[in-house]
């Protein structure tokens, strides 16, 4: 196994499309195991082949916690077949060292792929879990799409990129996600309203209990 060099934002290979993996050759197996090692060496939760300069439809993910047994998942020729419920996701990418920003994702996805033995599997990830977000992030890499293309606020994202000496958003790559944005904002407004209501109720309860003590 070997730790590979990770391509940085700005390098062309991140924008290129990838080809289907045919036979799962020893070369592909080695690439996948090297990618897992590279992901661990960089404390990442996911890594796609284009990020190590290989234009294959292949990515690896491990969302296990530090105190858990490592659980690397390999996705060969993945395809997201279902997605629902837009949400905000605060994320980064190993090709954007240090930079994090708010992007649009779906809370629930169903992905079909093959494992390294060539066995097909279907995986469902829900509730805006790290796995659900990572599957979308890594699948995007295979289409030459980067997380900043989903940015909710281009000024905030450009500030963050500049802070980490990375190129700005490529405006022509920004995705039109107005419908997703509207849904996310409605959900966020409801959450903040519920939060306010809870605080108010807590204050009333506190005032009542203080009164009782006097
Ligand atoms: Zn990434």
Describe this structure in words.
This protein is α+β, with helices and mostly antiparallel strands. The chain has 2 domains: 12-175, Peptide Deformylase; 177-214. It is 35% helix and 22% strand. It is built from 4 helices and 5 strands, in the order H-E-E-E-E-E-H-H-H. The protein has helices at 26-41, 130-141, 154-163, 178-213; strands spanning 46-48, 58-61, 73-92, 100-114, 120-125. It has a 5-stranded antiparallel β-sheet, with helices on both faces. A hairpin with a 5-residue loop joins strand 4 (100-114) and strand 5 (120-125). The longest helix has 36 residues, at 178-213. The radius of gyration is 20 Å and the shape is globular. The model has no long low-confidence stretch (mean pLDDT 96). Zinc ion binds at residues 93-95, 137, 141.
Mean pLDDT, to the nearest integer, reads: 96
Multimeric state of these chains? single chain
Could you tell me how far the N terminus lies from the C terminus, measured between alpha carbons in angstroms? 70 Å
The radius of gyration is 20 Å
- Helical percent range? 25-40%
Number of beta strands: 5
CATH superfamily of the largest domain: Peptide deformylase
List of distinct ligands in this structure: zinc ion
Shape type:
globular
